[in-house]
Specification:
The complex is a heterodimer of chains A (about 180) and B (about 160). Chain A is mostly helical and about 180 residues long. Chain A has ten helices and one strand. The termini of chain A are far apart. Chain B has one domain: Gcn5-related N-acetyltransferase (GNAT) (Aminopeptidase), CATH 3.40.630. In chain B, a hairpin with a 4-residue loop joins strand 4 and strand 5. The N and C termini of chain B lie close together (about 5 Å). Classes of the chains: A mainly alpha (about 180), B alpha+beta (about 160).
């Protein structure tokens, strides 16, 4: 049945068009399937052995980038996830001490410590440095959006500042019916 | 996401999510999909859909092999009308394959995604998406997998 569909489609479309529309299912016997799995497992194990530390680090950095991206898109705010917590994860991935890393990105170690513990927010300049430090793998905009996400949350819940600031406004437009 | 209207070059807002049972109605009613999408475990099937119309543009079935640190694309299908030289929208298959790579990075598989290709299509998967030969299978990982993610999912 699946093979019939493939035959029908391969008459209608060129190979270039087919790969833009399909990955076809392949019907294999249990024996064939198990052989294929053994084969790819061996190749995969060999490849993993050959992988350099740099390749492993790169994969971990991409994983971190995707975690940040998912969190930015998520509809909730988690106070335990912030710029500093993701930066801590970055340090774990690249296996550098705080002192070494502070020197790498030309900031004082005490400032780095404040950033890691969410006691200070990053500025735009710092996000550019982080992008450069990651070899472009984690773009500045992702670090910046983590700050925006936190600020959006604080803006919504900070009723005391809202009330305090509202008192300073004169001649506000009263447009409601 | 790089889902683009061919004639105008305009971006189509799209999302990828897990398939839900209600989607089978659309899949059947639309007559746009040839394969039987009820066969795979629904938990392993993802849909790429137009966020404005909610129309499903493409479907992806991936199997997880944790002991081999890899995901395998078992089946991928784009809406019939969006395949071939007269297609209205492009980039759907690329986005779905890139999505599989992203999932493989998140699982700690270094972005490793494999597929069992039809012989005739081997070169074309290699040229179009950067797959490489791993025995009789094709696979993508590491830098190439991230490249696919940047080209299709992070395209601005």
């Amino acid at each position: 049945m699946n093979e019939d569909i493939y035959k029908k489609l391969s008459k209608k479309y060129s190979p270039e068009e087919l790969v833009e529309g399909y990955v076809f299912p392949v019907e294999l016997s249990e024996e064939e399937e198990s052989k294929l799995r053994e084969e790819i497992l061996l190749v995969r194990q060999e490849k993993l052995r050959q992988n350099s530390d740099q390749e492993r680090m790169f994969a971990e950095l991409v994983r971190l980038k995707l975690q940040i991206t998912d969190y930015i898109k998520a509809p909730y705010f988690d106070p335990n996830l912030h710029f500093g917590s993701f930066l801590t994860e970055y340090l774990n991935v690249i296996r550098r001490s705080q002192k070494e890393f502070a020197s790498d990105i030309a900031i004082h170690p005490s400032r780095l410590n404040r950033l890691l513990h969410d006691k200070e927010d990053p500025n735009i300049e710092l996000t550019y440095r982080l992008e450069k430090h990651s070899g472009g793998t984690i773009p500045a905009i992702l670090w910046w959006k983590l700050l925006i996400k936190k600020q959006e949350y604080l803006l919504k819940i900070d009723s005391s500042t809202r009330k305090k600031e509202e008192k300073k406004v004169k001649n506000d437009l009263r447009l409601s019916a | 996401m790089k889902i683009v209207e061919v004639q105008t070059g305009d971006r189509i807002p799209a999302k990828i999510e897990k398939l839900i049972f209600e989607d089978f109605l659309f899949i059947k009613k639309s007559g746009q999909f040839e394969f039987d999408w009820r066969k795979p475990d629904i938990e392993k099937v993802y849909k790429l859909f137009d966020s404005q119309t909610t129309d499903i543009l493409g479907l992806l079935y991936i199997e997880d092999y944790p002991e081999e640190l890899r995901l395998e694309i078992k089946l991928l299908e784009v809406q019939k009308e969006l395949v071939g030289k007269n297609k209205r929208i492009e980039g759907i298959a690329g986005c779905l394959i890139a999505f599989a790579c992203a999932e493989a990075f998140k699982k700690g598989y270094q972005g490793f995604v494999s597929l069992v290709p039809k012989t005739l299509l081997i070169n074309h998967y290699q040229n179009k998406y950067g797959f490489a030969k791993y025995g009789r299978q094709l696979a993508i990982e590491g830098y190439q997998a991230n490249q696919l993610i940047e080209n299709y999912l992070e395209y601005e």
